[in-house]
Amino acid sequence: MGVAYHAHYLVWFEQGRTEYLRSLGSTYRALEEAGTLLMVTETGVRHLKSARYDDEVEVRTRLDSVKGVRLRFVYEVHRDGDLLATGFTVLAAADTSGRPRRLPPELAEILTAHAPAGSDASPASNPASARERS
Quick one: 8-133 is in which CATH superfamily? Predict the structure, then answer.
């Protein structure tokens, strides 16, 4: 068929989130070492056009909301300026036993500075991009 497997989009979303956190000066590794996990609780993808094998795609990631222990990220997948897919993930902060917990204060402060209006935070924006091969 020559098209990228549909589940790759979720992997690309994860890579986009990783780069988003890195752009804010944090990493998943640091969060986990400090005892906070970000667990995916919901996902959605709308496929508009197909990515093909060996395409280079750009994943644009934006924090959509911060509410309590939950974070919602939205994504756009582009190839050469064409929008291929849109999507979202919802993550919940948890301790190492999987129980919900508040975000660490330093991460909450960084994220709330970049969360849009309507969140438990003040408005701002910090979209991040990641380039990947399909």
Answer: Hotdog Thioesterase (3.10.129.10)
